[in-house]
Design goal:
By secondary structure, this protein is mostly helical. It has one domain. It is built from 7 helices and no strands. α2 packs antiparallel against α3, α4 packs antiparallel against α5 and α4 packs across α6. The N and C termini lie far apart (about 40 Å). The relative contact order is 0.17.
Length: about 170
Amino acid sequence: MLAVGLADYLILLIPLLLLVMWFRGDRAQREVALRAVGVTVLALGIGQLVGMALPHPRPFMIGLGHTWLVHVPDASFPSDHATVFASVALSLLLDGAVWLAATTFLAGLAVAWARIFLGVHFPFDMLGALLVSALAVVLLTALWRRLGTQIADQAERLYRFVFARPIAAGMLRR
């Protein structure tokens, strides 16, 4: 039950973390959260392309071991769950949020272990996720140098417009 909880539900902490950074953080923290979302989306996209180009079966698809978690029989490489954790952890690390990066990475290791233990991934799927995430960080960092300030400014304007009342009431940070 612990492995199932880790494998299926610990990932919900990622959007919660990013939302707290956005709604309770200052401008710099919002930009870090926004960049982490960008890296994650890019990494997941790259992962999907890799999975289509090099489809690798999951352990249960080749009769290896026992599957303790119901999962669709799609490509296992790279792991989407591990990609999300690695993308956010690497983004936080590169932006100087070392404690949050370490915590996110450790949570990602727990999820990776659980998904391997439950028979839906191979260890190599987790390494692939880390590599895809690192590539996404490199690619997005280059783009962010050019357009990051503009993207963050637009996101800030939208945030202040949509949440004007809670910001004015002091419920959210300006």
